[in-house]
Each structure stands twice: as structure tokens, then as C-alpha cells.
Design goal:
- About 30% of the residues lie in helices and about 25% in strands.
- It is of the alpha/beta class and about 425 residues long.
- The chain folds into two domains: about 5-20 and about 230-425, UDP-n-acetylglucosamine1-carboxyvinyl-transferase, Chain, CATH 3.65.10; about 20-230, Enolpyruvate transferase domain (UDP-n-acetylglucosamine1-carboxyvinyl-transferase, Chain).
- Helix 10 links the parallel strand 18 (about 305) and strand 19 (about 330).
- It binds shikimate-3-phosphate.
- Shikimate-3-phosphate binds near residues 95, 168, 169, 194 and 314.
């Protein structure tokens, strides 16, 4: 499917974005191993989270989808999952394969996990290594570094794991395995990654605590909960940035997740000069949320790196677009993780934004963007089957003269079903 957009006029709008992808995955998996029936509202019915639902059903969990965004999960308790009759297909979802690796490492049965071409290229050694230290029997292609992964669950030993990467997926795999280990399992990461797993496990009654960059878990039963998933700040980022780059535009995104491990994009847009207001802050299901309003005015380039990067790891493609529209130079450092996302996002965003005339270069660990050119020209872009690249190119199209077409844009459904319609509803096209 091609998605075609035109240059936008300033718009004023109040929108809701779909539920948070990370929290939606966690809610289904954790509810599945809790005792009792959990309800999940504002679940993200995107392809990735539906892959998690499909895999959990294959593992014997009854999941009722009352409406696209409302689920009832009949938890089977910590030891109630059943061997699937076939391999588990995670589609494009890194969260599903890495979390399930941790969860299945402690089950007394055999599982095979695989996914699409992108998943089969992405590094799995980062979860295999700690799980093996816990005593898991787990194998994969290319020296156990690539999917498909085969897992034969075994009795796990608790470990302390010093993770070399600030990755919530690695941390969560170890914590989920820790639910099945005989004693205290802990993970320390080099910088804070998103902490939704820790919060949700605590909400379901797990014996879990955090101390700085370390999360510590002990085995224990979980009990069913009612979960309300906040709006996904990574999806909202495309609309917040659309308002930020179009002077005079104004957007409010309601009920948006504002967990501080995810709000790097808000801080950066503000530092670049966007006017941002947050109202109705509250905490629901252990997660902060609020209504975020962005008003666009001229942006300035910025330098970012270090501990901020994990707090906006999925927003770097969209930030590259903001940087192209900002005056001056933007330098993004310490972002080498982007090379192993759904696509090599540093390469993809550089190649695609150049098509519009953006002065952008890939560096060893990030991007260098010289913004401020007054007019960019619409282009025909490739998505690399990566939802965030497809949406970043679309956004660049909104700020460029003429027409922009994004090829293979159906991948946007991975995280943001309804994206094109919401964009059309802004009514900003010239
Ligand atoms: C996710 C964690 C991040 C992020 C991904 C979702 C999660 O990956 O990029 O889109 O749900 O835990 P890493 O933790 O591997 O950086």
C-alpha cells in the first residue's frame, strides 16, 4: 500500500492516539501467567501486539477480544502455560520474541520462536546469554545469536546480570525468567530503559523492587488486574512533531502515557523551541498520563546523546525530521542501537531524508543534520517495512512542497492502525 500526502497548512486539533505498544504487550503476557481474569482496556490492536495475543493463545491462554481495544485474559497462573503444537510466529515484534524467550525459559516444555525477515536478522544473543547463565536450554541460528530460537524450559537459577545494553527487552526477559528461578534475580543496566515491566509486575503483585539502575525480582504468584493502557507517546510523537515543525500549528493529544522513561521526545522538542503544555496529569494502572499540547514555532538544532537516548530510542527517526526543519545543526550521538531495530534506522532515515533534499549524514553512532533549508521537495520513499521509517517519511512529506508517497506503508499497522485517517482528519493538506 502507498501512502500519499501533501504539504500541510497549520492545523489545530485535539486527538487521541492508540494504546501504548510496550504496555499492551506486557499486559497480555503478564495477565496470561496471573491467577484469575484480567481486563485490558485501550489495548493497541496493532499487528505487533496481535502477534503477542496469537502466541499466548497458542500457549493455551484464553483471550477474548471484546472489541479491538478491549481484552479479557483468562490467566493460567505461573505454571499453567501449555506446549504449543507448532512454532510461535512473532511476526515483526522484537518485544514478543525477547519477552517470550524469558517466559518460556522457565516452562517445562519445548518451544520454537521465529518471525519475519527483520526479526530473523535482529540480535537475539543479548537474551540468550543471560538466560543461559540462568540455566536455560536455548539455541538459535548463527551460534545461537539469531532466530529461529528453540527453547527447552528447565529449572532456572537466579543470577545477577550486568546488561551491556540499556534495553528494556533484555531486562524484561531476565525479570520474566526470574519469576521461575529459585531465589532473587537482578538486572543492572548501563542507563535507564523503559520500566513498564517493573511497574506492571508490581501492579500484578510480584515481589519486585528497583534500586537505581537495578531491578530485583523473586518468584511469586501474580493476581489478575484491570489494566487501562495509556496512549502511546511513540505514536503521538509523529503528531506532536508535526505541530512543532509547522509554525502556527497546535495539537493536543489526550490521555498520553508520560512515564519519565519515555518522555525524552517532549523534553527535546521543548529544548528545540516548541511550546509544550501538559494538563490533567494523573496515574492510572501504575503509569502516569496526561494531555499534551504542542504549539509550533521556529525550532533550533540541538545536540543529544547519553542517558537521554534510551528515553527516546524509538523517536529518533521523527527527531531527524524535526532537525531538518530546525535552524542550525543537530547532532545525535550514542544511538548505535538504532542499527538493530526493525531496520537499520540510521541508514534508512539518512537515505530517505536525502530524497527530500535534507543535509543529513550518518555518523558512527548517530546522525548529523544541518537543518534550516526553507523549502524541501516531496519525494517517493521506501518504508524498509519499518513502521517508524514509514511514518517519519510521511511527516517529512507534510513539511515539503508538492506530493510525497511512501511505498509499502502498510507496515504502519505494526504500531499505529488509523495513522493515515488521523492525519487526514487534521485537514491540513494544501
Ligand atoms: C521496547 C523496548 C525498546 C523499543 C521497542 C519496544 C519494549 O527496545 O525500541 O520498540 O517494549 O520493551 P529495546 O529495549 O531493545 O531498546
Amino acid at each position: 500500500m502507498d501512502l500519499t500526502v501533501k504539504k500541510y497548512k497549520p492545523f489545530q486539533s485535539v486527538i487521541n492516539v492508540p494504546g501504548d505498544k510496550s504496555i499492551s504487550h506486557r499486559s497480555v503476557m503478564i495477565a496470561a501467567i496471573a491467577n484469575g481474569v484480567s481486563t485490558i482496556d485501550n489495548f493497541l490492536p496493532g499487528d505487533d501486539c496481535l502477534s503477542t495475543v496469537r502466541c499466548m493463545r497458542q500457549l493455551g491462554v484464553e483471550i477474548e477480544q471484546l472489541s479491538p481495544a478491549s481484552l479479557k485474559v483468562h490467566g493460567r497462573g505461573l505454571h499453567g502455560l501449555q506446549e504449543a503444537g507448532d512454532y510461535l510466529d512473532v511476526g515483526n515484534s522484537g518485544t514478543t520474541i525477547r519477552f517470550l524467550s524469558g517466559l518460556l525459559a522457565g516452562q517445562e516444555f519445548f518451544s520454537v520462536l521465529t518471525g519475519d525477515a527483520s526479526i530473523r536478522r535482529r540480535p537475539m544473543g543479548r537474551v540468550v546469554t543471560p538466560l543461559r547463565q540462568m540455566g536455560a536450554q536455548i539455541w538459535g541460528r548463527n551460534g545461537d545469536r539469531l532466530a529461529p530460537l528453540a527453547i527447552h524450559g528447565s529449572r532456572l537459577q537466579p543470577i545477577h546480570y550486568d546488561s551491556p545494553v540499556a534495553s528494556a527487552q533484555v531486562k524484561s526477559a531476565v525479570l520474566l525468567a526470574g519469576l521461575y528461578a529459585k531465589g532473587e534475580t537482578s538486572v543492572t543496566e548501563p542507563a535507564q530503559s523503559r520500566d513498564h515491566t517493573e511497574r506492571m509486575l508490581a501492579g500484578f503483585g510480584a515481589d519486585i523492587r528497583t534500586d537505581g539502575l537495578t531491578a530485583v525480582i523473586r518468584p511469586g504468584e501474580l493476581s489478575a488486574q484491570q489494566v487501562l493502557v495509556p496512549g502511546d507517546i511513540s505514536s503521538a510523537a509523529f503528531f506532536l512533531t508535526a505541530a512543532a515543525i509547522i509554525p502556527g500549528a497546535n495539537i493536543t493529544v489526550r490521555k498520553l502515557g508520560l512515564n519519565s522513561t519515555r518522555t525524552g521526545i517532549i523534553e527535546v522538542l521543548e529544548a528545540m523551541g516548541a511550546i509544550i503544555e501538559i494538563n490533567n496529569r494523573r496515574t492510572v494502572s501504575g503509569e502516569e498520563l496526561g494531555d499534551v499540547t504542542v504549539t509550533g514555532q521556529g525550532l533550533q538544532g540541538i545536540e543529544i546523546g547519553g542517558e537521554l537516548i534510551p528515553r527516546l530510542i524509538d523517536e529518533i527517526p521523527v527527531l531527524a525530521v524535526a532537525a531538518a526543519l530546525a535552524e542550525g545543526q543537530t547532532i545525535i550521538r550514542d544511538a548505535q542501537e538504532l542499527k538493530v531495530k526493525e531496520s537499520n534506522r540510521l541508514e534508512a532515515v539518512t537515505y530517505e531524508l536525502k530524497r527530500f533534499g535534507v543535509d543529513i549524514n550518518e555518523t558512527a553512532d548517530g546522525l548529523l543534520i544541518r537543518g534550516g533549508r526553507k523549502q524541501y521537495t516531496g519525494a517517493v520513499c521506501e518504508s524498509y517495512h519499518d513502521h517508524r521509517i514509514a511514518m517519519a517519511c510521511t511527516l517529512m512529506g507534510l513539511a515539503s512542497v508538492g506530493e510525497t508517497t511512501v511505498r509499502s506503508a502498510e507496515c504502519i499497522n505494526i504500531s499505529f492502525p488509523g495513522f493515515a485517517q488521523l492525519l487526514a482528519d487534521l485537514g491540513g493538506g494544501e
